[in-house]
Amino acid sequence: MSSTAWERYLAAFREPSGYLNFASYGPPSQAVVDTIGGLAQAAADGEASARLHAEDRRALAAVSRLSGFAPDAVTLTSSTSLGLFQIAFGLPPGEVLVSAAEFPSNLYAWWRSEEAGLTRVRTLPPVAGVPLAPVTAARVAEAVTADTVAVAVSAVDFRTGARADLAALRDAVGDRLLIVDGIQGFGVIEADWTLADALVVGGQKWLRAGWGTGFLALSPRALERLRPLLGGWTGVEEAGLYDGRPHPALPGAQRLSITNASPFSSGALATALELLESVGVPTVGRRIADRTGQLSTALTDAGFPVLSPQEDGARAGIVVAHVADRSAPTTVARLAERGVTATAHGSDRVRFSVHATTSSSAVDAAIDALKGTP
Questions:
Q1: Is 331 within 8 Å of 344 (Cβ atoms)?
Q2: Helix (H) or strand (E) holding 236
Q3: How far is CA 353 from the centre of its chain?
């Protein structure tokens, strides 16, 4: 990667220097904003929908390149939640194993599927004394049974930034389906995403593509077993033949398409992914690792215990600091007054999340604000 490419990447973003909340939302680049505006103008000018929906193919091509899944194994979705619902309602009969510590989007899909009588949900047994322990291959291997048809897990824990060992989980899951919520890791950590049978990613956080963007990728195993119960008219053969009859589902991941995607969302995702490709995930990942390391050290030195993993390669862009009991909301409000954006988790944890555009001085300023330094 040339220094010019990196400079162009940095110049594409305009978030405030104290923005340390990418695990909640990643402000999109100016290129994404311009793409959405240009497509909206094209729509206002009456351009043909075929021209606008060419953005779908552009987005899918970028998803395939970055995920490692074949082009016909990926499809677009508007959110992680919708993608997980489509998986949950299409699973073969049996049991889904999931941790109670998952983000709600990776719980409600399975709960609603169970309420509909389509599957059964079993909670991964907790670790004694560690209620929010991350999901590990050892825990999964001990918990799966002959009735387990799928295991759902996040690639990165939203509470602590702990990275899941996808290779070890793949071995522990065996021939069952491994469902991976990749929203907190895709695009900022290097991983073999094809270890997942279903990878679901929303684009509004680390990909910085804005709301309403995302994708779903499926392995051959998943394509063979999942039913397109939440697939719609754009997910079938001869979709343009309006004959009042149900048509066979498409052979690839597109079978889960419900309707035409928004060209504005597709264009935004495509632009965000292409910008990421211009510098590469390894470069972005290294920059984030540098900043999380700096932030963790500074928090510890300032007397705030760090609850995120400290080992290199064990975390993504999230760093969680422990604060005095019941003071997290107050602390986050004080940080906001000093121009630092973070998230309160519970009463005693403050979650910071940095991106490749976060500067070293921004980390120093956050620590000063946390300590109340003038």
A1: yes
A2: none
A3: 14
